[in-house]
Automatic annotation (TrEMBL):
CDD domains registered for this protein in UniProt: PTP-bact (cd14503)
Domain Beta-lactamase hydrolase-like protein phosphatase-like: 2-110
Lineage of origin: Bacteria, Pseudomonadati, Pseudomonadota, Alphaproteobacteria, Rhodobacterales
Name of this chain's protein: Sulfide:quinone oxidoreductase
GO molecular function: FAD binding; hydrolase activity; quinone binding; sulfide:quinone oxidoreductase activity
InterPro entries (UniProt xref): BLH_phosphatase-like (IPR005939), FAD/NAD-bd_sf (IPR036188), FAD/NAD-binding_dom (IPR023753), Prot-tyrosine_phosphatase-like (IPR029021), Sulphide_quinone_reductase (IPR015904)
Organism: Sedimentitalea nanhaiensis
GO biological process: sulfide oxidation, using sulfide:quinone oxidoreductase
Length: 557
C-alpha cells in the first residue's frame, strides 16, 4: 500500500486490501472512496469486501466507480460532492491512483491554480498532462479548441523573447512567428540598479510592449497555462490552444516575494525596498537620501537569481552616496549573503573587496533572510554555516534592501519541459531541449549553468535563431553558447568593475585591457553602462541588430 498525499484532506493510492484497514485508520484517515469498478482485475477484492472491512475499522466508505481512461465531467462533479460529504482526511483509490488523482484535479479546476494542481499531482507521482486542457477549462471537456498555428511560437516577450523574434525575422523575414505574453509594459531591468542609485529616472527603463514587438510578429496577449510538447501545443488561459512547428521558451524568472515571511506586507514602506521591482527602485533612492545614521542591511538569497551582482550593486551605490553626503561614518552597512562568496568569479573579487573596505561594510556569509517585521524594523536570518547547526538570528535595521528568492515560473516547473529542479532542460551549448528537439530555450528560465543576465540573453538570442534556421533547413546546430554573461558592478558613481565570464568562470572580456580592464574599476565601463547599453538594448538587441553578439560556430571535432 503506497499512500500519496495530494492535500491535507485527501490522499490517493493504488488498490487497497481489506487487511489494510487498520493501518489506514491508524494513519489518521476517516473515510475511503473507491474509484475502481468491481471486476476490473482478477486479483481485485470487491467493493463489498472493502466496505465491510472499512466499517469494521470505523471508517466511512463511498463507491464512485470510474472506467479506466473514461473520466467524464460528471464523474469529477460526483467525486467532488462525495469528497465534500465525507469526513476528512479521505483516502481515494483505484488500480494505480491515477483515476483518483485525475478526478481530484478536474474537481479542483477553478478552485486552485493549474500550477498548484499539477505540482500536487506531480509530487505524488501522477502526470496530469492528458487533462490539462480540461483543467484550464474549469474541469470541463472543451468543445472548441480554437487552434491557431504558427511556424514558431515564442513564450515570453522579455529581452530574450523579443530579441529571438527579431533575430529570426532578420534571417527569414517570411517566418510566421507569434509571441505569447500578457504584459502591457516591457522593462529594461538592468536600469533599475541605476534608478535605485539616483542616476536614472524610472521612466527611462520602460516602454509599451506593442511598440517593441517586431514588425510582422503576431502578439498573443495572454498568459500560458501549460504545455503539451507531445502535441506541439501551448495551452493559454481560457483553454485556447496555439500550435507550433518549433517553440522557444523564455518567460523569465519568478520573484518569490512570499517566501520571506512578512516581506510583502512591508515592501515600499518601513524602510524596506528592492531594486528588483520597477515601482520600488525609486524608494530605494529615497531611503538612501534620507538615511543619516543607523544600520542598512542588503540581502542576497541562494542561487540562482537574475543578475547575481545586483544585491551588492545596491550596497556599493548606497555606500558611495553616503560617502559623498558625508554620513558614511554614521552608517553600519551589513551585506547578508545566503551564499559563501562575494562573487562567483574570483578574478573580480579583489577590486570588489577594496570597495567593501572603503564603505566599511560587514560581509555576513551563509545568512539567508527568512522573515521581516517592517514596523518593528527587525529581520530574521537563518545562518547555515558549513558543518554547523542552522541558527536563527535577529537583526534590527533602519533601511533594508531585499533581493527576493527566485524560481522558475510555476507553469514551467510543473511542465514536461522542466528538469528535476524546475528549469527548462536544455543542452548548454545548442540551447535545444534535451527531450523535445523542436523546443529551444534562452534567458533566465533555462538550466544551463550560466549567469542569468540580460547580457547572456543578448548572446543567446542569435544562437537560438541560427540553430532554428539550420534545423528548418534539415541541418544540425551550427552555433554554440559558451556561457557568456556580463555583470557591470557599479562600485561607485562613475566607476564600474565590468565582470564578463562564461562557463566555469572563464573570463570572456569584450574589450582589450587597454580600453577596459574588467578586473579594475573604470570610468570607461561606467560610460558603457550609463550611455551605451540602454540604446544598444532598445535599438540594437530588440531590433535584431546583433552588435558584438555574433554567434560562435559549432566546433567540429
Amino acid at each position: 500500500m503506497d499512500i500519496k498525499p495530494l492535500t491535507a484532506g485527501l490522499s490517493v493510492s493504488e488498490q487497497i486490501m481489506p487487511a489494510d484497514m487498520q493501518a489506514i485508520k491508524e494513519a489518521g484517515f476517516r473515510a475511503i472512496i473507491c474509484n475502481r469498478p468491481d471486476g476490473e482485475g482478477a486479483d481485485q477484492p470487491a467493493f463489498e469486501e472493502i466496505s465491510k472491512a472499512a466499517k469494521k475499522a470505523g471508517l466511512q466508505v463511498a463507491y464512485v466507480p470510474i472506467v479506466s481512461g473514461k473520466v467524464t465531467d460528471d464523474d469529477a462533479v460526483a467525486f467532488d460532492k462525495t469528497l465534500t460529504e465525507l469526513p476528512g482526511p479521505v483516502l481515494a483509490y483505484c488500480r494505480t491512483g491515477t483515476r483518483s488523482a485525475t478526478l481530484w484535479s478536474l474537481a479542483q479546476a477553478g478552485q486552485r491554480s493549474l500550477a498548484d494542481i499539477l505540482a500536487a499531482t506531480k509530487a505524488a507521482g501522477y502526470d496530469m498532462g492528458g487533462v490539462v486542457r480540461r483543467i484550464v477549462n474549469g474541469g470541463k471537456t472543451p468543445t472548441d479548441t480554437g487552434d491557431a498555428n504558427y511556424e514558431i511560437v515564442i513564450v515570453g516577450a522579455g529581452a530574450g523573447g523579443i530579441a529571438a523574434a527579431a533575430s529570426l525575422k532578420a534571417r527569414k523575414p517570411d517566418l510566421e512567428i507569434a509571441i505569447v505574453d500578457p504584459a502591457d509594459i516591457h522593462y529594461y531591468q538592468p536600469g533599475w540598479t541605476m534608478v535605485g542609485g539616483g542616476i536614472f529616472e524610472p521612466e527611462k527603463t520602460s516602454r509599451t510592449m506593442g511598440s517593441l514587438i517586431p514588425k510582422g510578429v503576431h502578439w498573443i496577449k495572454s498568459a500560458v497555462a501549460a504545455f503539451e510538447p507531445q502535441n506541439n501545443a501551448v495551452i493559454l488561459d481560457g483553454c485556447r490552444v496555439v500550435k507550433y512547428n518549433r517553440l522557444i521558451v523564455c518567460p523569465g524568472i519568478k520573484l518569490d516575494w512570499n517566501k520571506i515571511e512578512g516581506l510583502v506586507d512591508t515592501l515600499g514602506q518601513n524602510g524596506v525596498s528592492s531594486n528588483y521591482r520597477y515601482d520600488l527602485a525609486p524608494y530605494t533612492w529615497k531611503l538612501v537620501e534620507k538615511l543619516k545614521q543607523g544600520r542598512a542591511i542588503f540581502t542576497q538569497p541562494s542561487m540562482p537569481i537574475k543578475c547575481a551582482g545586483a544585491p551588492q550593486k545596491a550596497m556599493y551605490l548606497s555606500g558611495d552616496a553616503w560617502h559623498r553626503f558625508g554620513v558614511l561614518k554614521n552608517i553600519d552597512i551589513q551585506f547578508n549573503n545566503a551564499g559563501g562568496v562575494l562573487f562567483g568569479v574570483k578574478d573580480y573579487v579583489p577590486a570588489l573587496m577594496d570597495y567593501v573596505k572603503k564603505y566599511d561594510a560587514t560581509l555576513n556569509f551563509f545568512h539567508n533572510l527568512v522573515a521581516v517585521d517592517g514596523p518593528a524594523k527587525k529581520a530574521w536570518f537563518d545562518v547555515a554555516k558549513p558543518d554547523t547547526p542552522v541558527e536563527r538570528i535577529e537583526m534590527e535595521f533602519d533601511m533594508m534592501h531585499v533581493c527576493p528568492p527566485q524560481t522558475a515560473p510555476d507553469f514551467i516547473r510543473v511542465s514536461a519541459l522542466a528538469d528535476a529542479a524546475g528549469w527548462v532542460d536544455v543542452d548548454q551549448a545548442t540551447l535545444r531541449h534535451k527531450t523535445y528537439d523542436n523546443v529551444w530555450s534562452l534567458g533566465d528560465v533555462m538550466n544551463a549553468p550560466n549567469a542569468k543576465t540580460m547580457a547572456a540573453a543578448r548572446i543567446q538570442a542569435p544562437i537560438v535563431a541560427e540553430n532554428i534556421v539550420a534545423d528548418m533547413r534539415g541541418g544540425s546546430p551550427v552555433a554554440q553558447y559558451n556561457g557568456y554573461g556580463s555583470c557591470p558592478l557599479t562600485v561607485e558613481r562613475g566607476k564600474i568593475v565590468l565582470a564578463e565570464f562564461g562557463y566555469g568562470g572563464t573570463m570572456l572580456p569584450s574589450f582589450p585591457k587597454a580600453i577596459i580592464d574588467g578586473t579594475k574599476p573604470s570610468r570607461a565601463a561606467w560610460f558603457l553602462k550609463e550611455k551605451m547599453l540602454p540604446p544598444i538594448y532598445w535599438q540594437g538587441m530588440l531590433k535584431g541588430h546583433e552588435w558584438m553578439a555574433k554567434p560562435e560556430k559549432v566546433t567540429v571535432k
